[in-house]
Write a structure and sequence with these properties.
The protein has 171 residues and is mainly beta. 5% of the residues lie in helices and 44% in strands. The strands form 3 sheets. The protein has a 7-stranded antiparallel beta sheet, with helices on one face. Strands 4-9-6-7 form a 4-stranded antiparallel beta sheet, with no helix packed on it. Strands 12-13 form a two-stranded antiparallel sheet.
Length: 171
């Protein structure tokens, strides 16, 4: 597997008051022609969301979206009727498929939430939308999970730091 190192300080940064986000690849108002993607991986955002704030309802389609809380609690609601809260040690995998709308909010009014959100191209387009979440197999270093979830060749298998292999579709 090819390894590319990007120092944290070299990423794009956005401060929206309630949201502070570091972008590894070009995203929203951050553009770097040398950092468009890595294989099927299109987005690695390191997000910090203020108490009780969040992303209002917005659409996605034909995208795999993986959310990993590092601190705090992240609440998810979507157009399929799902609603859940994920915490440190959990992972949520949403296959946007033919289309889904969802919102994500800091579930706590007393502390911020910090989470990684990764977006990747699905193996097949126009699939039925789906959501899976739960504890990740002995997740201890979520940053390693992100780095190993997508390879440049497009493999879709994830490995945590203990070497436990799982497919995102198993969640």
């Amino acid at each position: 597997m090819k390894t590319i190192y990007h120092a944290a300080g070299s990423r794009g940064f956005a401060d929206h008051g309630w949201l502070k986000s570091n972008h590894t690849f070009s995203f929203a108002n951050y553009y770097n022609r040398d950092r468009m993607h890595f294989g099927v991986l299109r987005v690695i955002n390191d997000d910090f969301v203020d108490k009780g704030k969040g992303f209002g309802t917005h659409p996605h389609n034909d995208m795999e979206i993986i959310s990993l809380p590092l601190e705090g609690e992240l609440e998810h609601r979507d157009s399929m009727g799902n609603g859940s809260i994920i915490r440190q040690g959990d992972v949520q995998v949403m296959s946007a498929g033919t289309g889904i709308t969802h919102s994500e909010f800091n579930a706590r009014q007393d502390q911020p939430v910090k989470f990684l959100q990764n977006l990747g191209v699905p193996e097949r387009e126009r699939r039925q939308a789906a959501l899976r979440s739960g504890p990740y197999c002995r997740l201890s270093q979520t940053q390693r999970f992100s780095a190993n979830c997508f390879s440049e060749s497009g493999r879709r298998r994830c490995m945590d730091t203990s070497g436990c292999m799982v497919s995102p579709r198993q969640f």
